[in-house]
Amino acid sequence: PKLDPFTTLLELKSGALDPERGTPQVRTQEDLRGFFQVAPEDPDRVVYQVLPMPVPKENSEIQCSTTIIEPGTVGDEYYMTKGHFHAVRDRSEIYLGLSGEGRLILATEDGRYRVEPIREGTINYVPGGWAHRSVNVGDDPLVFFAAYVGDAGQDYATIERDGFPVLIGPGDDGPAVRENPTYPS
Ligand code: 6PG
Ligand code: NI
After folding, report:
1. Interface predicted TM-score (ipTM) of this complex, two decimals
2. CA atoms in the 13 A half-sphere facing the CB of 112
3. How far is the CA of 172 from the centre of ligand 2 (A)?
4. Which one of 28, 59, 86, 113 has the minimum C-beta count within 10 Å?
5. How many angstroms separate the Cα of 183 from the Cα of each of 105, 109, 161?
């Protein structure tokens, strides 16, 4: 065998991992420049963090991490992740919702899309070939655990260029999904 077994405690509400096994990846509004429709309003403010549980990036392994997205908005959009296709396109992923209220936007390269719920207890299956972005539509942090094929990698450039077919922001009657006017037709 290549690895020794290990056990980590996942604090279900906050998403904290004990012991921490890698450096948290912190994304500020500035880091998301070009992903929201408008420029950052408060550039240093943290939008989300990813707490990794690193294993070798090989297809025989399962990468996993927790993501914590703060509540907030930039322009008309709720705080969200950059979103990505997996660099190896057919690699799939599972999300387990831990707390908060969110939406998972999924899209194919030919422009099909789905919007799925994320909250405590949801399991979202993200098949290969579907780009995925999570959005915090609530007033509390959105927390979920993700596990995916080890060599998947992330392609952010395609999303930075095209975005997703839909945007999610506050509406008159709760979260509103609207068409992305800059998505290529
Ligand atoms: C992954 C997962 C997930 C994701 C984070 C942050 O492939 O690693 O989809 O852990 O990376 O939720 O989202 P971004 O990678 O899009 O910034
Ligand atoms: Ni992913």
Report:
1. 0.98
2. 3
3. 31
4. 59
5. 14, 12, 9
Percentage helix, strand, coil, to 5, in the chain?
A: 5, 45, 50
75 CA distance to ligand 1 middle (Å): 22
Cα 90 to the center of its chain, rounded Å: 18
**144-181 tens-digit pLDDT:** 999 999 999 999 999 999 999 999 999 999 999 999 99
Q: Which CATH superfamily groups domain 9-179?
A: Jelly Rolls (2.60.120.10)
124 touches 134 (CB < 8 A): no
pTM: 0.98
pLDDT band at 54 (very low <50, low <70, confident <90, very high): confident
